[in-house]
Amino acid sequence: MDNMGRALRLAERALGWCSPNPAVGAVLTRGDQVVGEGFTQPPGASHAEIMALNEAGEAARGAKLYVTLEPCSHHGRTPPCTDALISAGIREVYVAQLDPSPWVDGSGIAALEAAQIAVHVGDREADAGTLNEAYFKWVASGLPFVILKYAMTADGKIATRSGSSHWITHPEARGYVARLRSQVDAVMTGIGTVIRDDPLLTARPAEFGIDSDEPVHQPLRVVLDSEARLPSTARVADPRLPGHTVVCTTSRAAPSEVARLEDQGVEVLILPARDERVDIHAVLVALGGRGVTSVLVESGGTLAASLIKARAVDKVLGFIAPRIVGGMEAPGPIGGLGLDDMDAALDLRNAEWTQVGPDMLLTGYLQTEGSGSRLEGAVVFGDH
Questions:
Q1: Residue 283: which residues within 8 A CB-CB, separation 6 or more?
Q2: Nearest to 127 by CA among 20, 8, 7, 2
Q3: Do 279 and 272 touch, CB atoms closer than 8 A?
Q4: What mean pLDDT is predicted for residues 204-229?
Q5: Residues 37, 49, 70, 298: which is the catalytic one?
């Protein structure tokens, strides 16, 4: 594996843990030898570059740095990485991707070059961009990057006509999703899915093949529930569950139901309503404001349709299993009334097909509201 590829693999280990900071990997080399490496630690702790410098010690002097994102050059919770790199005597820096945040935005490169350090930008840029696509969306808009995931049969069904849905996909696909849960900041679903399927919405290491003793990031569990109907017996409401559950509801919820959930340790957010349901946009603003940069949606067709109608979906992960169940009454992954004309269908950009075990994974992107500009009133800060 090349050095930037090694840095990208390290950066993946930071996903979930480091938000709202970007996930960054860094590798220091002298000749053909790796002398230090690291990845972004939780907010307030060391960045990838500092981890690599600490491991290298004096061997960092005259070394080359391979880093997946432009080093920061400002004071935040930690000092600038550029100052540490210059003081350590780094000779040359390879940067995969520039950091577009207003608190970096080229200043890291400028600081290194002013110190006579040779800088090269663009090695594995596309891969680095995908790795931090949620961070880039959040920096630009204040809103989290929303991934809509569904699993369906070859004939487009997410359940049989009687509601049976376990399991559509095979263990490999389920392991892929289990790992993804550990890499996102939040997992979102609707109250209908909770009542019907009673999901955990947790990251379970045994499902993606790592030692159960290894720490695993638990995403924030978000349930959209306009009347606070979440049963006290629901698994996501169990106070013994690792992580934290938030119910997003409206003023239609009875105060006694809100108090019941709060007494059980569930956080309740009372948000504006739209069409008698929790306003999707208000949910995303609230999550983005608390530093949630990525949301994985695992829901039924009703919430999926609402998210698409609200232009809130950034990325689609569609698992297609080689199975057929048939039935006019068997549901599909996207509910609602649907479109009248095929010409109005939404196209997925940069669509790719990947085989995951016996199943196929379709990955593509939708243009979303707020994906290219800052959301008015949203507060985003450099947490470095």
A1: 188, 222, 224, 248, 271
A2: 8
A3: yes
A4: 84
A5: 49
